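Thread title: Can someone regenerate the structure for this chain?

I was given the following input by a collaborator and told the matching structure tokens would be attached. They weren't. Posting the sequence so someone can regenerate them.
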Amino acid sequence: MGTSFINHRTSDFLYQCLSLGSPLARVVTLSIGIGVLAFVDAGSLRFPDLCIWERIFGYCPADGTTRALNAFFHGEWEQSIRYNLNILLMIPMIAGILVVDMLTLIKRNN
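Best answer:
Regenerated them for you:
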């Protein structure tokens, strides 16, 4: 295996990581996001209110989703549901995306 093969594999890997539509990019991005939500307490952070839905309609259907995901990944499942019921859809969707993309990557590398 020459240097050109290694360079090609490295550039292909980097391209897959940076291409947001690729399974590898989704697995990496979701894993980092889950890791951050699992280790950082979102209640201690203050984010600016950027929700355009709330500004226009006075109500945001996604309000509390970040806190709900944070509580879920900290094992506070009841609290996560109290923050936002969207969590009941988000967790299976995230898990499904991760499983499908990881299976795609495993099949691709075999």
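The mean pLDDT is 82.
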